[in-house]
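User: quick one - fold this with zinc ion bound?
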Amino acid sequence: MDEHGPWIAHINHGRWVAECPRPRCGWAYLLKPDQGGQICQTEQGDGCRYAGTVRWPGDAAAISTELALRPVEADRNWAPAGHPQTFRSRTPDGRVVAEVFPRGETVADLRRENGTIEALPPEPTTRDETIERANAALADLGFVYDPAEPGHLRRL
Ligand SMILES: [Zn+2]
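Assistant: Sure. Structure tokens for the protein plus zinc ion:
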């Protein structure tokens, strides 16, 4: 067991995952919280069959909680110091994680970053554009959406 080392639990786009530790294998798997071991075998029967323990950070739950506060899943990433993801992954303000946090990113670091994310102006979404079009159409008819009104419409 563990001849290629443990599976290293990390968060990618909000999901706990681990890549197979066997060199050149390349399969990655979703992990359940506190999962103790992993076998490299997909539901379709692919994979190298490597079995090993999963190495979790001691504060996995706190890391999940901090990242879940980020509205954009692409900003929900965490990996221990030295993990390949830290060299590809960027902080919300665009810096390479491994360069900013060479000894690893702590829960306090994630929380500090969360403060900067909330300061960023939100990108307009398709939903926002749909709401704007609906409000413009209502205004053309002489109404405005008002959640305080019965029926939620008020005459302009
Ligand atoms: Zn494998």
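One thing worth noting: The chain has three domains: 1-56, 64-122, 124-156.
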